[in-house]
Amino acid sequence: MEAPMYPDSPLDSAGPSGRPPAYWVGPRHLAGDDGRLYDAVADTLTRLGWTSLTIVRGRREPDEAPGEQQVLRSTVLHISPDSLRWAQWLLPDEPFRLGDRPIAWQVSARDAASSPLAQWSAYFTSEVPGEVLSDFLIALDARERPAVPFAGPELVLDVVISHGWVRHPDQPDRLAADTTFSSQINFGEVPPLIQDADPRSLWVELEEPGPSGWQAWAEPTPGTYLWAASFSPSVPNDLVAAFAASLSSAAPVRRRLLPESTRNLLLRAPAG
């Protein structure tokens, strides 16, 4: 039986527990991270058996109160059992941004433990739905060789098209969007500072385009991003497809907090 949807329900009204009530909301690509992007992803990595390490570097004066410590960098690092893949929680540091959003998670992988450098990296800002990033990491964890490509880029667009997204008429092999054009996924030149082992990423002439990789974003109003994700050129396409499949899924997600920029675009039904 289909649950009724209530687009005008007062999601911010606190229940008897003092917490906002929970709702099932959709579409998930506009649902935000519910204010718990770290917890959602860290819980997934714990279930997968990844080890977490907290790295804090800072300075504390002898008479400084505990809450006033000047932390220069605080990173939570999660490492897979084979040490071939890892995920870093970077939001407290805000090292750089995609669109106008701070990077929250960086995920990297290498093909051999003897290699000191990552073969590829992927970056996710705040408000990426935690379910989507978790599905990407589950697919990464399941791969025996996390840096070896197994499929072409057409797989990514095929997945979102099968979920009702549409190809861009001018770039049908590179760009697709949801039917409202508020979220898009594109195969094109990657932004600066995206780390990749492909040497072309380091030696690009100014007048030449750089290597292509996947980018995805939600832009509910022109010039204002809800979230963004960037995959370096060497990220295997089947992993990007796992992200895209979850992102474009019609299955609702459970939320208590909705982004201001998309709350009027979301349908919702009470979650018991």
In short:
This protein is α+β, with helices and mostly antiparallel strands. The chain is built from four helices and 14 strands.
Total of DSSP H or I helical runs spanning 4+ residues = 4
How much helix is in the residues?
A: 10-25%
**Poorly predicted ranges:** 1-10
Averaged pLDDT, please?
Answer: 87
Query: Strand count, sense and closure of the main sheet?
Result: 11 strands, antiparallel
Distance between the termini: 15 Å
Q: Would you count the extended β strands for me? A: 14
- Element order: H for helix, E for strand: EHEEEEEEHHEEEEEHEE
Coarse shape = globular
Pairing-aware structural class of the strands and helices? Answer: alpha+beta
Strand content: 25-35%
Rg over CA atoms: 20 Å
Task: Explain what this protein looks like in three dimensions.
This protein is of the alpha+beta class. The chain has four helices and 14 strands. Strands 2, 3, 4, 5, 6, 7, 8, 9, 10, 11 and 12 form an eleven-stranded antiparallel sheet that branches. A three-stranded antiparallel sheet has the order 13-1-14, with no helix packed on it. The longest helix has 13 residues. It is globular.
Task: Detail the topology: elements first, then pairings.
Elements: E1 23-26, H1 37-47, E2 51-59, E3 70-79, E4 85-89, E5 97-98, E6 101-109, E7 120-125, H2 130-142, H3 154-162, E8 166-167, E9 175-177, E10 183-189, E11 212-218, E12 227-231, H4 237-247, E13 253-255, E14 267-270
Question: Main attributes?
Answer:
11-stranded antiparallel β-sheet; 14 strands; globular
